[in-house]
């Protein structure tokens, strides 16, 4: 209560003085027990106060010691008015009885009953009396002399002011008003009402009932089973002073642990946690009824778990290793200090996530509960965006990602501080940045690109999937775990499982890296170390050097030798096919040196080969051709053979050679990428690749269908008659040899025995 000491005014006329002050109606005080009293909690001076207008010739209000209901001072006269100014009594006035009240702190106040002619007019006091507080009655007596007029405290309590109200230990009923009140119940089973305004209510010990009313209120129940009712506005349950962890479930309306034990909630929108490991969950909707506010949670110190559930929530983990989940809706989530985990749910909406930077900082953005693939792009250090196609979030201050069980993709090339990614199940594509990244593919057929920096890549050992590691110039010194090394195929060759993709890696001369460019060493712990021409290194944890020491083993692991890198016979000797340019001379079987008219390339990545496995290359082992190297060609590529019997020559497609006995021609089913190089002349030619006669590119229906659109357009600019020349059925000229169909191959083998490849 905000009381005003002294009287309102005094006016002297002759020997009489007029005094005016405010008091209390007769029904303003109620007995709590035989020894306790309380002023009406809803007392409002503007509405309930009485005005006493007394004229007297002395300075004290007299009593009625003889109990004759007339008073001892015949010169005291009063007019008593209600708050509206109406006269409710007038006449000779006196004090009938006096009480001494004491609050919990021992502060005393005297209260007097005022009568006229035996009728109660109300009460006056010599100090402030707080509405709703419970006071002990220390003493009572019939005074001969009442208080001095200068000691009377005018009753001017205004609940609409910003009041600071403190209760007792005895169970108070305290009422705030229209402004921003601070109400402390202290001990006992208190009833605290904030009214309108942004109020702070603190119940203290005991089972209290706190009602915030309108406005954005903060309710602290304290020890005991409290009932917290927020009312309208954004209302907060505050457990910052709890001596133990709390569990608050707004959806169920109950609390447990610490000072939340036994608490119940209605209209509570937010929670402030304790300094311990709290668990706080919201309601699965937006607000209570028409009160459309969503959850605002502050975890405080400790390792907290905050779950916003439905609606657009604001979650603040504060200190500690917190787990925060915004749920559905458009949420703001801030981990605060230390290593936090922000969990993203299906239907997550348009969220904003801040990991926080202080303390033991290593924050995780966890998508493992999202049921659809996510795509994550870093636009700077620890910052970027993510989407599942329907919902989108932006994030900052995130050091680690945990992905879904679907086919996710992460592009962290935009950051330099190092990224840690756990991909989970699914066929994931992970690209690191220029820092030291840790990429874990886990289950599924994953494609991992470490990028710059010294990265650690984990492929998921024994996951029965073909993983791919992409290397490039400047990729640093990487460590790879879980790489499944090539194994013998039973026919003197090797079958690869996991693959390297080095299509973007060049030697110092600018040529594509081939298997013989790679040096194989030992890290001193029995792990293979691959060193590439421009200094990049890969340590293959768990793979012995003997598993990668031969060119065939490295080729089986995806480091190419042929296709790109295939040696083509020219007048000056064998040259790598990628070094040839249009106009260079190449030796042909039928016409000697001939200039190359066109060179085309087509790169097929993992997804291309997975969608069209029939395009995976064929390897012809060196034992079949009496060469030192395997020859890798496309399935449709024609190899020159001599037919048994008449000795005539035919072209047989590589995919049909797979039917030859001995297993020397096999499809590369584990291959994850390939670059096909096409050499075309003014007419179809037989050329020599790795010493073996085979065809140049022939632009028939099959050959043209194998080209992508840009390559086909380029070819048609050089040979515009390919699709319009009607002079022959090919629009280019006849093949250098006829093609042998699969059924013809079987027939010749049945009638004449095995064929031989020409050398």
From TrEMBL:
This is Hedgehog/Intein (Hint) domain-containing protein. It is found in: Secreted. The keyword Secreted applies. Residues 407-419 have a biased composition (Polar residues). One of its GO terms (molecular function) is calcium ion binding. Signal peptide: none annotated. PROSITE patterns: HEMOLYSIN_CALCIUM, INTEIN_N_TER. One of its GO terms (biological process) is intein-mediated protein splicing. Residues 203-215 have a biased composition (Gly residues). It comes from Mesobaculum littorinae. It holds the Pfam family Hint_2. One of its GO terms (cellular component) is extracellular region. Keywords: Secreted. InterPro entries: Hedgehog/Intein_dom, Hemolysin-typ_Ca-bd_CS, Hemolysn_Ca-bd, Hint_dom_sf, Intein_N, RTX_toxin/Mannuronan_C5-epim, Serralysin-like_metalloprot_C. The keyword Metal-binding does not apply. Residues 422-431 have a biased composition (Low complexity). Residues 154-224, 309-330, 407-455 are annotated as: Disordered. Residues 560-700 form the Hedgehog/Intein (Hint) domain. It comes from the Bacteria. PANTHER family: S-LAYER PROTEIN.
């Amino acid at each position: 209560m905000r009381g005003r000491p002294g009287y309102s005014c005094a006016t002297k006329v002759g020997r009489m003085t007029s005094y005016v002050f405010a008091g209390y109606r007769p029904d303003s005080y109620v007995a709590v027990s035989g020894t306790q009293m309380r002023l009406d909690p809803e007392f409002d001076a503007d509405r309930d106060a009485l005005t006493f207008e007394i004229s007297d010739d002395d300075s004290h209000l007299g009593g009625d010691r003889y109990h004759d209901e007339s008073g001892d001072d015949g010169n005291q006269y009063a007019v008593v008015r209600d708050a509206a100014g109406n006269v409710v009594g007038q006449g000779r006035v006196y004090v009938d009885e006096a009480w001494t009240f004491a609050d919990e702190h021992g502060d005393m106040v005297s209260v007097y009953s005022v009568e006229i002619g035996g009728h109660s007019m109300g009460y006056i006091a010599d100090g402030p009396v707080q509405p709703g507080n419970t006071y002990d009655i220390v003493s009572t007596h019939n005074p001969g002399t009442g208080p001095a007029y200068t000691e009377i405290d005018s009753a001017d309590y205004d609940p609409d002011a910003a009041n600071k109200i403190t209760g007792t230990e005895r169970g108070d009923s305290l009422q705030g008003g229209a402004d921003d009140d601070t109400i402390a119940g202290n001990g006992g089973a208190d009833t605290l009402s904030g009214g309108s305004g942004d109020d702070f209510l603190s119940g203290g010990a005991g089972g209290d009932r706190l009602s915030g009313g309108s406005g954005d209120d903060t309710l602290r129940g304290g020890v005991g089973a409290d009932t917290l009712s927020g009312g309208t506005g954004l209302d907060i349950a505050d457990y910052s002073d709890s001596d133990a962890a709390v569990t608050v479930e707004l959806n169920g309306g109950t609390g447990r642990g610490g000072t939340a034990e036994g608490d119940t909630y209605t209209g509570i929108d937010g929670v402030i946690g304790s300094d311990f490991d709290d668990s706080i969950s919201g309601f699965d909707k937006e607000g209570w009824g028409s009160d459309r506010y969503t959850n605002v949670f502050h975890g405080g110190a400790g390792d907290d778990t905050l779950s916003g559930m439905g609606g657009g929530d604001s979650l603040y983990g504060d200190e500690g290793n917190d787990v925060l989940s915004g749920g559905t809706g458009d949420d703001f989530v801030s981990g605060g200090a230390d290593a936090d985990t922000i969990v993203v749910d299906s239907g997550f909406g348009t969220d904003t996530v801040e990991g926080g930077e202080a303390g033991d900082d290593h924050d995780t953005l966890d998508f493992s509960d999202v049921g659809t693939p996510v795509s994550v792009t870093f636009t700077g250090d620890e910052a970027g965006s993510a989407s599942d196609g329907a919902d989108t979030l932006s994030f900052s201050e995130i050091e680690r990602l945990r992905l879904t069980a679907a086919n996710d993709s992460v592009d962290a090339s935009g950051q330099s501080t190092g990224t840690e990614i756990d991909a989970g199940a699914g066929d994931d594509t992970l690209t690191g940045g220029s820092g030291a990244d840790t990429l874990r593919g886990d289950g599924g057929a994953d494609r991992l690109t470490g990028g710059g920096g010294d990265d650690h890549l984990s492929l998921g050992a024994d996951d029965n999937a073909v993983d791919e590691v992409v290397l490039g110039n400047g990729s640093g010194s990487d460590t790879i775990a879980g790489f499944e090394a090539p194994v013998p195929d039973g026919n003197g060759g090797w079958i690869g499982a996991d693959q390297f993709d080095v299509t973007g890696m060049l030697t110092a001369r600018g040529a594509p890296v081939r298997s013989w460019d790679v040096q194989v060493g030992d890290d001193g712990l029995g792990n293979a170390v691959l060193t590439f021409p421009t200094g990049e290194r890969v340590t293959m944890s768990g793979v012995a050097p003997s598993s990668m020491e031969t060119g065939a083993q490295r080729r089986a692991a995806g480091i190419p030798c042929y296709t790109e890198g295939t040696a083509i016979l020219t007048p000056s000797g064998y040259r790598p096919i990628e070094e040839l340019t249009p106009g260079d001379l190449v030796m042909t079987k039928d016409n000697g040196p001939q200039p190359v008219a066109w060179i085309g390339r087509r790169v097929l990545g993992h997804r291309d080969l997975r969608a069209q496995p029939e395009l995976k290359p064929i390897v012809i082992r060196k034992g079949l051709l009496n060469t030192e190297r395997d020859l890798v060609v496309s399935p449709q590529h024609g190899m020159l053979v001599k037919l048994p019997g008449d000795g005539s020559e035919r072209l047989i497609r590589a995919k049909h050679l797979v039917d030859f006995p001995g297993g020397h021609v096999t499809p590369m089913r584990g291959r994850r990428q390939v670059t096909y190089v096409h050499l075309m002349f003014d007419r179809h030619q037989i050329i020599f690749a790795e010493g073996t006669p085979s065809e140049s590119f022939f632009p028939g229906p099959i050959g043209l269908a194998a080209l992508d659109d840009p390559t086909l357009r380029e070819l048609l600019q050089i040979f515009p008659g390919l699709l319009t020349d009607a002079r022959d059925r090919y629009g280019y000229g006849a093949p250098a040899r006829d093609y042998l169909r699969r059924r013809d191959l079987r027939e010749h083998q049945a009638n004449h025995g095995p064929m031989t490849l020409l050398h």
